Amino acid sequence: MKRDMDLIRQLLFDLEAEEPSGYKNFDFKRYAGQYDLRLVAYHLELLTQAGLISARDRKTLHSGEELWWGVRVSWLGHEFLNEVRSDTVWNAVKQKLSSTVGTVSFQVLGELARQVARQMVGL
Asked: What is the pTM of this model?
């Protein structure tokens, strides 16, 4: 599977918007019809590996359904969201990437978003 930065950004926004709720299961169903739920689970795993979210517990049932409990955005996740929060910045970053190299590492993506934002505010 390929990493989808638009999905990663959306997952972080959705998690950020949730009230902290202790030990609630992550709601995969809200993505049904829009994304393959295995793709969503894969991207949650990527977010965890990158330190952008934390989860208290994860299990895969015999039916193949995944349960993710206590999923929250981490400090690093909030920092990344602040870099790409603006749709104007995000779209400018994606445009710049598509017209040049196509894809970059997560670190370069964040730095590029910071550079675009600085240019927009005249720094």
From this structure: 0.85
pLDDT attached to residue 66: 77
User: How far apart are the C-alpha atoms of 19 and 59, rounded to whole Å?
Assistant: 22
The reported pLDDT for the residue numbered 7 is 95
Under a CB-based contact definition with an 8 Å cutoff, are residues 81 and 13 in contact? Answer: yes
- Report helix, strand or coil for 57: strand
Can you tell me the distance from the alpha carbon of 93 to that of 103, in angstroms, rounded to the nearest whole number?
Answer: 10
Maximum Cα–Cα distance across the chain: 54
Q: Contact, 51 vs 76, CB < 8 A?
A: yes
Cα–Cα distances (Å) from 68 to 23, 36, 43, 61, 111, in that order, read: 9, 16, 12, 11, 30
What CA–CA distance (Å, rounded) separates 85 from 66?
28
